[in-house]
Design brief:
Pfam family, one: ABC2_membrane
Strand order of the largest sheet: 1-2
Structural class: mainly alpha
Shape: elongated
Number of strands: 2
GO molecular function: ABC-type transporter activity
Helix content: over 70%
Protein name: ABC transporter permease
Number of helices: 12
Membrane topology: Multi-pass membrane protein
Order of helices and strands: EEHHHHHHHHHHHH
InterPro entries: ABC2_TM (IPR013525), ABC2_TM_bact-type (IPR047817), ABC_2_transport (IPR000412), Nod_factor_ABC_transporter (IPR051784)
Length: 302
């Protein structure tokens, strides 16, 4: 625990001994990681559900997307390679958008108040929780990348170079983009949790976002073949930038369709603006979530 507790008896101020910031983050991280691993629903939705979606979407949309991909990519991209970034971002979104549920559960069970009266650093409490969810997103991402390659190999005998044209550096980049993207919706989910303080409302808002936002993005089909109003909404949709960033790394080319950027060259024309916009969302929503957490902490302690 950090040195933040003060004993004001007889006007004397004594600070209790405890952990530093890193120690508090580590304690919070371990607590949430163990809690997630012991929850079979979390394990299922994190690891099994993305596999099911990848196989089903590849079979269903792959049948009708061939001509569209030929029109947009001159037949150089298989639909499994095109779809995998969407499944990666969808899985990160599903994990991140339910981040606030654990916080609400803590509030309802009284655990939130117990932590607040302890000397644990408030920011460390939040960071530890976020890091445990980052671990889940990283594991999901690596599993889906591997499964996508296996599916491509079975169906088309495609090589790893065709699947991930930027190699190992691209794999690391894909993981980083999914983590940055996940941060946006972790912050959003915790904002909803801190405002509503209700588990059902947090789940409802998570589900409300997941599928509608996916379909108004470049997830399943190239944006240039979709209606104009979808392309207009996609400009404001962070999912578009997450998917385009991952897709640019996998295909090794500029795939950005909602913005025109030419100053960086090749895939960087997509990657730089996509990451920049996602970082901006993280800063704005993360700042709001942190302020709400501090306000909730003051209210509970009083």
């Amino acid at each position: 625990m950090s040195n933040r507790t003060e004993d004001t008896v007889n006007g004397r101020v004594d600070r209790s001994p405890g952990n530093d910031m890193k120690g508090d983050v580590w304690i919070s991280f371990k607590r949430w990681l163990v809690k997630n691993l012991r929850n079979p629903y979390v394990v299922f939705t994190s690891l099994v559900q993305p596999v099911i979606f990848l196989v089903l979407f590849a079979e269903v949309f792959g049948v009708v997307a061939g001509d569209t991909l030929t029109q947009s990519f001159q037949g150089e991209v298989n639909y499994i390679t095109f779809l995998t970034p969407a499944i990666l971002i969808m899985s990160a979104l599903a994990s991140a958008a339910t981040s606030g549920i654990g916080l609400v559960t803590d509030m309802e069970e009284g655990m939130f108040e117990k932590i607040l009266v302890s000397p644990m650093n408030r920011t460390a409490m939040f960071l530890g929780k976020m890091l445990s969810e980052v671990v889940r997103i990283v594991i999901q991402t690596l599993i889906i990348l591997l499964l996508g390659y296996m599916l491509l190999t079975v169906r088309t005998s495609g090589s790893v170079d065709q699947y991930m044209q930027t190699g190992l550096v691209g794999v690391i980049g894909v993981v980083l983009v999914t983590v940055i993207f996940g941060g946006v919706f972790m912050a959003y989910s915790n904002i909803v949790a801190l405002v509503s303080r209700d588990e059902e409302a947090t789940i409802m808002f998570a589900n409300l976002l997941t599928f509608p936002l996916l379909f108004v993005s470049s997830a399943f089909l190239p944006l240039d073949v979709l209606p104009g109003w979808i392309r207009a909404v996609a400009v404001l949709n962070p999912i578009t930038y997450g998917i385009d960033g991952v897709r640019a790394l996998m295909l090794g080319r500029d795939v950005m369709t909602v913005l025109t950027v030419t100053g960086y060259g090749g895939l960087w024309n997509t990657l730089v603006p996509a990451v920049g916009i996602l970082v901006g969302f993280n800063i704005v929503l993360g700042t709001i979530a942190r302020r709400l957490l501090r306000r909730a902490a003051r209210a509970e302690v009083q």
